[in-house]
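Exercise 7. Given the components listed, write out the predicted structure of the assembled complex. Treat all entries as one system.
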Amino acid sequence: MAKKVEFMMGNYAIAEGALYAGCKFFGGYPITPSTEVAERMAERLPQVGGRFIQMEDEIAAMASVIGASIAGAKALTATSGPGFSLKQENIGYAMLCEIPCVIVDVMRGGPSTGMPTGPSQSDIMQAKWGTHGDHPVIAVTPASVQEQFDETVRAFNLAEKYRCPVFVLTDSIIGQMMEQLVIPEPGELEVVDRLMPDCKPEEYLPYDMDKDVNPMPPFGSGYRYHITGLHHAADGFPTNDPELHTKNTVRLIEKLNKNYDDIVKVEEFMTDDAEVLVFAIGVTARSAKHAVVEARNQGIKAGLVRPLTIWPFPEKHLDKLLSKNNVKGIVVPEMNLGQMTFEVQRVAKGRCGVEGLYSLMLDPILPGEILEKIRRFV
Amino acid sequence: MAYDYAKYLRKGKLPHIWCAGCTYGIVLKSLIRAIGSLQWDKNDVAIVSGIGCASRLPGYVDFNTLHTTHGRSIAFATGIKLANPNLKVLAMGGDGDMTAIGGNHFIHACRRNIDMTVFVFNNNIYGMTGAQYSPTTPKGAWATTAPYGMTENNFTITDLAIGAGATFVARTTAYHVAHCEKTMKEAFQHKGLSVVEIINACPTGFGRKNKFKTPTSMLLWMKDSAVNIEKAKKMSEEELAGKFTIGVLHKEEKPEYIETYDATVGLKK
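Answer.
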């Protein structure tokens, strides 16, 4: 059978990716530049037996997504900067209570209402530290319409596999551009479902702290249990025991750290002998690739490190390149004032120069600007 | 005959955290009796709460229970119900949880008419955080954040619910235990969103500083101030001064949300 090829908007591709992954619920609140995800889901979900609801605000939208997931549905919401801020308390709830769900953040300029229709990459740190407390984060960063689809499927898989919320961090250029999308056949991409218990209901522990990931039966399945946003013991009931609180928080973080190789995906382009690296995500990485090719044409050994997972931060990948190669410098172009650069500097540990290239100009950073920075290191 | 409450309680989680004289335990008994009388399967019931004293109730009962963030129980419950309409979903919280921080979710739930029940445990105060004023604290009453007396106007929760479009709105009290059970049962049997305000006593936070010297005096106040809605219809304004009505205050039939949604978008039931 011929592959299904579409010419599609990036935000629609996210919706299609969600449906491919088995999403059956969307709870949202409109916000530019993410709204097309909601609009597409409103139309498409009933066609696959799912339900859509436009809630009264972003907070309610996030809450409904968590509720739907607890009742057994793979659930999605989509938002942008200010909406992402509003969702943060309930995102923290999903992190502590280990509720799988996917949150799309089509980034726009901030702070506050900021730049509603302009692209930006300003939520990198909000994704990591938006909610209070110590917690793990998975965030994927697509750079094309095809990746909007593929990475959304991967986001759902990671959410289900590790019982946690997962972010799709994209921006309004990737979200609203149209490109070719090849929709895979069912079965072509892996689709992961959450683990179900095989014990008797009375023996089930929702938060066994000696396990990385516990099974999660839906409400209504005969496994009756308690979920609370308070720190809890293995049976899910509140505890004020600081040792348990410590053990569980460390466990949550280690659950993702231990699985770095499964979670962190990085595309490396011409990095084998590279002396200058460009570290970029999303739309900026597209310009960066162009700049690297141009640099090579000029005899400069440049390479691109393009994370498709920005959280957990791809430090093992970067560290390996810095240990192996004779890297003189890393250029970090980003559409903010240096959120990712600080992380790159942290991993570089002074082994090479790290130069940020920042823009809040609402246009993509151009290949020529990145090339100019690359040249400074040779 | 002795009633088997134990069947519905998580005995290992008792004793509860509520203060001596708090009426939430009484309401919990009414709730168990109402659910028991309808013979609902425990596996089919999901109870969702927010934050506050009342919101700790789900921890004590053996259903599918969810203790969420402050004010958001209805929004979590909405997701649960949409993902699995077969579940009997109940959202509960105190007056602050439901009508202050959760006010927006409360009014929109009334408007949508999803088939679930919302309980508002109204004790006129924020109990858990230590007696700060809530949207239902009466004018002039003392609270730690109203040390000179409450200056704001207060909500009448049932009027708010009716105004927002709820199709079943009732009020009862912790004193009227049989009435409380009966009202809950009626609410559960209503198709659409039902709201039940339950007048409660917080002797520690509210009563102690508001001229109710003992927990009993608060129960007696409920007894003396509550007038059944049917009786109230025959009473004059003067006779009703300082009193409140209990019973089903509003009931109407309107299309239920999920049924309407499913029919509109072509989803099979």
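Discussion: Chain A has a mean pLDDT of 97. Chain A is about 40% helix and 20% strand.
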